[in-house]
Amino acid sequence: MIYTVTLNPSVDYIVEVEEFTLGGLNRMKRDMKLPGGKGINVSRVLKQLGVENTATGFLGGFTGEYIEQWLRQEMIASDFVHIADDTRINIKLKAGEETEINGAGPEISQPETASLLHKLDALKQGDVVILSGSTPPSLGGDFYSRLIAVCKQKGAEFVIDTTGQALKDALPMGPLLVKPNHHELAELFGAQISTRAEIITYGRKLLDAGARHVLVSMAGEGALFISEQGVYHAGAPAGQVKNSVGAGDSMIAGFVGTLSLTGDVLEAFRAGVASGSATAFSDDLADRQKIEQLRPLVVISQL
Ligand SMILES: Nc1ncnc2c1ncn2[C@@H]1O[C@H](COP(=O)(O)OP(=O)(O)O)[C@@H](O)[C@H]1O
Ligand SMILES: O=P(O)(O)OC[C@H]1O[C@](O)(COP(=O)(O)O)[C@@H](O)[C@@H]1O
After folding, report:
1. Which helix (H) or strand (E) holds 90?
2. DSSP line for 268-287
3. Which residues does ligand 1 sit against, CB inside 6 Å?
4. Do the Cβ atoms of 199 and 206 come closer than 8 Å?
5. Candidates 12, 85, 127, 249; catalytic one
6. What is the CA radius of gyration of the chain?
7. Nearest ligand to residue 105 Cα
8. Whose CA is nearest to atom 17 of ligand 1?
9. CA–CA gap between residue 170 and residue 211 (Å, rounded)
10. Which Pfam families match (predicted)?
11. Which residue among 81, 84, 88, 198 is least enclosed by CB atoms within 10 Å?
């Protein structure tokens, strides 16, 4: 079974204005409220790919109910810890460019934390746990390490998509996949990265530190795949970008879902890029039809 863990889900409030005036009254041209948080996005795209999975993490309040109801409608299995505080709302402002304002996250109590750890007791050998997104501050900086320790103890594999120290700490534990975008990669190493060669150099450092597969996404420039097997580039298909929120999460879903179905890493890479681009070209996350349409258009070359 594949599990996604979203410690800090969100309702993504996508607001479109013709032109944004700071300090003035702006009227919305269009708005959408979508379930969000990285693991939840991964779960939704896995479901589109026909890969059954269970979404877990923390949900609370009216925002938490909104997300849970959405998952129910899409027939995605969910097993969240219900918290007393409200799940956050993240603002995605589209005014030509995309500007994001993400909340810090709700207060999580000690019993709520224990309850999530207890749920992970059910993990078993062969399971894959996708740990995605930020950690609400009340959980403390080492919470992912605690979850990874449980995964390892149960013989489950894990994928981690987060930033900073939490990602650094996870590498020696041997993640199946890490997927920074090129900005996150530069930030991780406190480096200036401007060329493809530099991305490969730093991407390889993630392999050396313990990751089994590394994807570095580069938005419209596609992605690099770095593993023991070699280094590959895939160009992103061309199309009209509608909303790139969740493109990275979709890429993880495409990669892990296809790897679980086929065992073929290059097919998984292709599906990852197709899924990321299919989301970038959609208002909401990618649907199956769009992913299938783009899959043959992804050109992979070995470097
Ligand atoms: N503008 C775009 N055009 C085409 N594909 C895109 C675009 N933006 C994102 N994608 C696809 O989604 C993948 C992940 O996007 P990226 O923006 O790098 O991730 P993140 O959302 O984590 O920052 C890219 O590798 C690419 O396949
Ligand atoms: O947990 P974080 O890092 O604040 O990110 C949460 C945000 O990331 C998203 O999951 C989108 O992530 P990506 O665009 O990187 O795929 C949004 O749905 C959500 O608002």
Report:
1. strand 88-95
2. HHHHHHHHHHHHHTSSSS--
3. 181, 217-220, 222-223, 236, 241, 244, 247-248, 251, 273, 276-277, 280
4. no
5. 249
6. 18
7. 2
8. 219
9. 9
10. PfkB (PF00294)
11. 84
The confidence score (pLDDT) of residue 280 equals: 97
CA distances from 92 to 14, 135, 182, 245, 250 (A): 5, 19, 21, 8, 17
How does pLDDT run across 222-277, given as a tens digit for each residue?
999 999 999 999 999 999 999 889 999 999 999 999 999 999 999 999 999 999 99
Phi and psi at 54, nearest 5°, equal -120, 130
**23, pLDDT greater than 90:** yes
84 Cα: distance to centroid of ligand 2 (angstroms): 22
Report the candidate in 138, 86, 133 with the shortest Cα–Cα distance to residue 113.
138
Helix or strand or coil: residue 15? strand
Confirm if 232 and 302 have CB atoms less than 8 A apart. Answer: yes
pTM, two decimal places: 0.96
Q: Are 254 and 271 in contact (CB under 8 A)?
A: yes
Q: Domains in the chain, please, with CATH?
A: 2-7+38-62+75-84+106-302 (3.40.1190.20)
Closest listed ligand to the CA of 297: 1
Q: Check if the beta carbon of residue 162 is closer than 8 Å to that of residue 37.
A: no
Cα 256 from Cα 263, distance rounded (Å): 10
Closest Cα partner for 10 from 34, 46, 43, 45? 34
Find tokens 């080492």 and name the residue: 142
Residue type, 238: A
In angstroms, the CA 275 to CA 113 distance is 32
Q: What does DSSP assign to residue 53?
A: E
Distance from C-alpha of 131 to C-alpha of 144, rounded to nearest angstrom = 8
What is the rounded distance in angstroms from the CA atom of residue 279 to the CA atom of residue 181?
Answer: 16
Per the annotation, the verdict on 86 as an active-site residue is: no
Instruction: Tell me the β-bridge partners of 271.
Output: none
ipTM of the modeled complex: 0.96
